Amino acid sequence: METARPRPLTVALALVLAWAVPLAAHPLRLDALLPLLVLVGTMAIQRGATGLIDRFVLACAQLFGAACVFGLGLTLWPGHLHPTLVAGVAFTALVLIAAATGRLNRPRRAPLDTLLALAAAGVTVVTLIPYAARDLGGRLGLPLAGEDIARHYLIYDVIGRTGGYLFLRPEALRPFVPDEELTGIANYPQGLHFSYAVLDRFIASTTGRTSAAAAVDAMVWLLVGTFLLLALAVLWAVRRLAGPGAAPARLLPVLLIAAAWLVLGDPVTVLSRGYPNELAGLACAAVLTAIVVRPLHRLGEQTVTVALLLVGISFSYPLFLPFGGLAALWWIGRARLWRFWWGWLAAMLVAVVSAIGPLTAMTASSGTQLLLNGTARVVDRPATLALVALALSAVLLRRGLRAPSHRAALFAVAVAFALAAGLGLYQIATIGRPVYYFDKLLHLLIVVCLCALGGLVRFLPALGVAARIAVAIPVVAALAIAGGEWHTTPVAPGVKLALGKDRGSPEAARDALLMARMFPDGGGAVNVDLMGSPWRNWSATLGAAALQHQYRHFPAWSGLLYPGSAGKGSTIDDLDRLVRESPVPVRFFVHDPEASLLVVDGEHPYRPNVKPGQPLPVAFGDPAAPTNVAAVRALAAKYPAKVQVVYATPANP
Fold first, then answer.
1. Cβ(257)–Cβ(459) below 8 Å
2. CA neighbor of 406 nearest in space, from 247, 293, 239
3. How far apart are the C-alpha atoms of 222 and 633, rounded to whole Å?
4. N or C, which terminus of the chain has less Cβ within 10 Å?
């Protein structure tokens, strides 16, 4: 049936409203509503999906990929990230798309999948409770323990200040980072940081809160929101792969297992350790898996969505792009897209834009990047193998491969497994053990396998509600009672997070926030925390450097503060040299008179208070060396024009 075209007058009126609404919202401080209206508008123009949650998931995926592309032009536009400009362009694009597809005339109601909505609501509640129950320092302390969040904040903050991608104009980053780190940070994938910065502009314009504390609070909640979108994407993929005829009686146990795996197992550690880019890449991979296995029923919309998902993966986590590319090629072959001239054009455009992420990442990386270690938690190996076995059972047994969707799901699982296994073997052959990026690829494998669990509905009988839940209880219990690399550590990561056992570094976060409140721009000095225990001091100094836009001066102090260097220590002479060579004044924050860091012999440090298997003590240094308070007092007396001592009182939760 031919699509009805809207009248020119209707289109003209809609285009006027596309700019009138943002222009009116800004003086009324209602900018925060505009992203929600853009999302609702994107959901309204969907033609390849029918359900309300289908439209929501697809709209989020499409908007993220479109935002990554939009950022390329916005970086060069003088208006940068002004909410009126961003919203006006977005509304204009939606009106033109709606006019071209006929949806401007015929909005359609979308049914709600109640069971899927309940599963997503359950995951949301379990995820939000440990974050809502903490103050800002407690929330920020969770990812701060993973260290990377400080640099993520730095990129997000500078993009917000300068209005665009840093890889297009790295000189804008130079005042904020050391010269030796400029190339690496400027070329880090920035699609999600850009999206966060845009959303923060809408939030700040409404709330009027523009401090570093407000900006980092917004980022933490956006991080949590990204995980919730990942969880929804996985649950939606499970529902989609189960097929349109899957009865709720059969689907409930599968959704329960997938939901439990997300909030109890390894995926939640990606949230708690603060890896926003990886969360976005995993979410894109989950949606891509779902629509490759069961494509949207409109070829044009399927093509656009696959293209935007590839761009989203490229601009957020290029490590997953080989999976995304191979999955897309499977669908291209299945749809025979080469028959259409526009298919070739789309492929070339997507290849060019998607190449930006890996090319910039290669510029930022060393030749041994894939061999580097990191702070990510090691993935539970036995649980992951069990999940792979469940996923293979879902697509292989009972002649599952007769269905094209099951063959596509098997291909997706096989590609994710091959990528992880290949990198693991390479790392073992090179350095003797799998590390960091191997676990990142295991996260991808877990997400893809969770999506494939939808095929399990063929094996489950139609039972009562209690019986359906009982089917999943053994799996959920096995996840909850243990975790760790070999599933031998009591209590799952998600349980520890929910019960407050996984605390991260809340004291360090509160110290960093205190320092940033006292000196928002650093006060013309590098600020060094020596108030408490060594890990707290190191993390707080790192966090404050990012919040105060003084990260440029942090690396010089990192070596002195970092307590993880085995067999090494810092002396008063090392501290004196750092003060003497610092290009800016040094401000020391002290509090606990027992706190100590220094040793007498740097090559053979004596630390009698350090006990194996116990947290590092506040009195970390050599009793014969000066305490932190004594050392900074001596330096202040020696360099009165360069050293300032602040006797601070740490904030309480």
1. no
2. 293
3. 41
4. N
Handedness of CA 598, 602, 606, 610 (dihedral sign): positive
506 neighbors 130 (Cβ within 8 angstroms): no
Q: Which amino acid is at 360?
A: T
Between CA 350 and CA 307 the distance in angstroms is: 6
Average pLDDT value for residue range 498-505: 92
Q: Provide mean pLDDT across the span 222-226.
A: 98
CA distance linking residue 179 with residue 177, whole number of Å: 6
Reported as type and span, the H/E element at residue 634 is helix 628-638
% of the chain residues with pLDDT over 70: 98
Q: Work out the angle at residue 475's Cα, subtended by the Cα atoms of residues 273 and 392, and round it to the nearest 5 degrees.
A: 90
How far separated are the first and last CA of the chain, in Å rounded?
Answer: 62
* Residue 219: half-sphere exposure toward Cβ, Cα within 13 Å: 32
Q: What DSSP string runs through 260-298?
A: HHHHHSHHHHHHHTT-HHHHHHHHHHHHHHHHHHS--SS
- 16-43 in b/e form (b: 16+ CB < 10 A) is eebbebbeebbeeebbbebbebbbebbb
Find where tokens 């450097």 sit.
545
* Amino acid letter, 523: G
Concatenating the DSSP letter of every residue in 346-389 gives: HHHHHHHHHTHHHHHHHHHS-TTGGG---SPPPP-HHHHHHHHH
CA dihedral for 24, 26, 29, 31, sign (positive or negative) = positive
Where are the chain's structural domains?
A: 8-109+220-497, 507-647
Count the helix, strand and coil residues of the chain and give each as a percent rounded to the nearest 5.
Answer: 65, 5, 30
Cβ 281 vs Cβ 241: under 8 Å: no
* Residue 432 one-letter amino acid: G
pLDDT band at 76 (very low <50, low <70, confident <90, very high): confident
Q: Give the sign of the dihedral formed by CA 201, CA 207, CA 212, CA 214.
A: negative
Helices 148-162 and 212-242: crossing angle in degrees, nearest 10, is: 110
* Residue 288 neighbours by CB under 8 Å, 6+ apart: 306, 309, 310, 313, 324, 327, 328
Tell me the per-residue pLDDT of 157-193, one tens digit each, with 9 for 90 and over. Answer: 999 998 899 999 999 999 999 999 999 999 999 999 9
Helix (H, G, I), strand (E, B) or coil at 541: helix
In terms of C-beta distances under 8 Å and separation of at least 24 residues, what long-range contacts does 103-111 make, across chains too?
103/44, 103/45, 103/47, 104/6, 104/10, 104/11, 104/14, 105/4, 105/5, 105/6, 105/10, 106/4, 107/44, 110/43, 110/50, 110/51, 110/52, 110/54, 110/55, 111/50, 111/51, 111/52
**DSSP H or E segment with residue 78:** none
The contacts of residue 12 (CB under 8 Å, 6+ apart) are none
